[in-house]
């Protein structure tokens, strides 16, 4: 099981899956790796958190929903309620430690603080549950350090978001931490299972050499990649992870926007903020209707809340019937005043799903085209959104040439797979680089070769500014702990430079072969840096160093070795 290699003697391996729509945890005792425990009662709960007016923790999940809806309307302005907050990290273009989240009423708190609170909550839940399962000396006095915490994150998240989550976990005192990628966790859970791989429904495991597409369809984002199973059941990524905002919460959003388009945003916003209890019941109803919808569903019926009907009719100065008759839905939506029944034809609800499912199918088509010579025969679905009948039916209809493999309780695959990864060596998966990575340097300027706009003078020498020095190419296969190195030098011959901080930046590009960091078509950006303090006597006039970029499980480490002073600097690159 490689225990000594992977979990550093941990007594427990615990997986946390903080999802957009739902969250949960699972754990196992390393002394009994055949049993995985999940949260008591409901294995996952809604991803929402309620904070007190002083920004301390109050409740999470269903309890948070219930407590928030029971507050008096005026209390909503002092308490903080966050729902679907994971998407903020995906959507943020310039994520920093100071990035804020807006709560249900628009009040903001630093995103880092919210995540620390949530991770501390799950840490407490896990440790309490561990103590309840084993009350003997195995768990007596168990500390957090004796638990290997496996925190799953989407594969399509940026380097900055990965670092953000690592820092949040550190601040939540999850000392023994591994970040794991959600589709990989789901894959490792699945490939150990007996699956229906043939038309005769016989059960078998994916064999060595098998190649499959894995689609992790979550609440917010989707992660899709291609794996080949190698000897010793390790995995090789044949196609780098791709994805988008196309999970189940996008369908929920489309449902909500339908009501906004039909009855107006003002009425809907007032209903959401001032009638919180009724609004949450409405959201729960949307979730039920979403899960039950399929290709054969004829119509979907909603019973509208009395207060919402009153708000909509007052705000629009029209009846519900008049609003529908004046909309583009007049032929496909019906309203019966008795019982306040709103009926949506199949074609209307289908639109809500297709904005997501179309993205999923296009991503799979793109992958099949890129991997046309790889003999990919299976499509493995995991994640909560994969349990939607409509999603399954559409995918099977779109890709009849693939065997669509659907895991029982696919929503738990990532959570349980994260635990199982704690038993595996960190090099269990060979991954593809999502970007081209390198450093910038300024070589001697060559007339006719280097662009004139990058010509500059450095200490009397004509140089070309910002040439991209590639170390890793987009799509390149990477192994855990693989090193990429480059030797560079810099001069510190002016007195004012001797005590300056020396900063080396890591650059990346979405193009396979960028030439210049500052040229627009090369699509380069500085994404991380390491800052080095000068030695006690200041920097020598010339400093030669070797830069090593080391591949981690989900992130890079940068090591700088300076020959002249015999110093070695090592740090996780700062992407924030």
Structural class: alpha+beta
What is the assigned CATH homologous superfamily of the largest domain?
A: ATPase, nucleotide binding domain
Number of helices: 14
Largest β-sheet summary: 7 strands, mixed
Name given to the CATH architecture of the largest domain: 2-Layer Sandwich
**N-to-C span:** 36 Å
CATH class of the largest domain: Alpha Beta
Helix content: 25-40%
Mean pLDDT: 90
Tally of discrete structural domains = 3
What does this structure look like?
By secondary structure, the protein is an alpha+beta fold. It folds into three domains: 3-181 and 414-424, 2-Layer Sandwich (Nucleotidyltransferase, domain 5); 194-406, 2-Layer Sandwich (Nucleotidyltransferase, domain 5); 433-572, Sandwich (Substrate Binding Domain Of DNAk, Chain A, domain 1). 29% of the residues lie in helices and 32% in strands. The strands form nine sheets. It has a seven-stranded mixed β-sheet, sandwiched between helices. Helix 7 (248-263) crosses helix 8 and helix 8 runs antiparallel to helix 10 (306-316). It is globular.
Q: What topology emerges from the helices and strands here?
A:
Blueprint (H helix, E strand, L loop, with lengths): L2 H4 L5 E7 L3 E8 L2 E7 L5 E3 L1 E4 L5 E4 H10 L9 E4 L2 H6 L8 E3 L5 E3 H23 L13 E7 L5 H13 L5 E5 H9 L4 E2 L6 E2 L6 E7 L3 E9 L5 E11 L2 H16 L1 H10 L1 H17 L6 E5 L2 H11 L3 H6 L7 E4 L4 E5 H25 L7 E5 L6 H10 L4 E4 L6 H9 L7 E4 L3 E6 L13 E4 L2 E4 L2 E6 L4 E2 L4 E9 L10 E8 L14 E9 L9 E10 L4 E7 L4 E6 L4
Parallel strand pairs: 1-10, 10-11, 14-20, 16-22, 20-21
Antiparallel strand pairs: 1-2, 2-3, 2-4, 5-6, 5-7, 8-9, 12-13, 14-15, 15-16, 17-19, 18-19, 22-27, 23-26, 23-29, 24-25, 28-31, 29-30, 31-32, 32-33
Helix pairs in contact: 2-9, 4-5, 6-14, 7-8, 7-9, 7-12, 8-9, 8-10, 12-13
